[in-house]
Amino acid sequence: MTDPFSPRVALASLSGDADAAWARRGAPHAGAAFLGGIALDEPSREAARDLVARDRNEFLPADPLEWIDEQLRSIADVDVRAGVNVRATGPEPIADAARACAEHDAVLEVNAHCRQDELCAVGCGETLLADTDRLREYVAAASATGATVSVKVRAGVDGVDLSATARAVADAGADVLHVDAMDSEPVVASVVDAAPSLFVVANNEVRDRESVREYLAYGADAVSVGRPSTDPVVLERVADAVAAVRASR
Length: 249
Prior knowledge:
Shape: globular
Helix content: 40-55%
Distance between the termini: 19 Å
Number of strands: 8
Strand content: 15-25%
Largest sheet: 8 strands, parallel, barrel
Radius of gyration: 16 Å
Number of helices: 10
CATH topology: TIM Barrel
């Protein structure tokens, strides 16, 4: 497939912090920036409010779709592929957000990753990993809009085979699989082998040349930086490492 972004370094979404200004700051060292996550429908927004009540940062704009449009418009002049990580309890809000992303050539990222109790209680986040049919439905709804679709997943969830998940979302129309390896780095090789059509982004403790080399050796197409995405020193180090590894091949 055509590279969804280059250079092959992404800024991973940070709830309540990953907005357009954050993407602009990190763009000199990244090819993509995933804004959000953002809750789209009332059950997911209520869960986000509960998270805020216990001191977690969350985006809670009055109109999530308007927020997506405004944020993407504000970085239209930045040389970075934008994406938006979203949560919802049904496919319709996902499709609405995907249409908003498609208008800006941005990536719609389905959040099958968050593990907070409040989000899982309403069927968001990693609960989708245990309900492959529902996850496929979300991906298909987003893909039908013409948007580039990513799915953010987490390793180490009991009873979940990420290889099977990768095949399922690829069949449903996903383009990108964003894998939080959760200290189980070989899982990257498993999903790469299971769904070769997917562009695989590896995440978790990406900090330096050693971590970059490990993930790319397992077959990842790109890496993403989480909490240190606000640190230009780390971002430059990671970007240089990716360029060096790819140049040596």
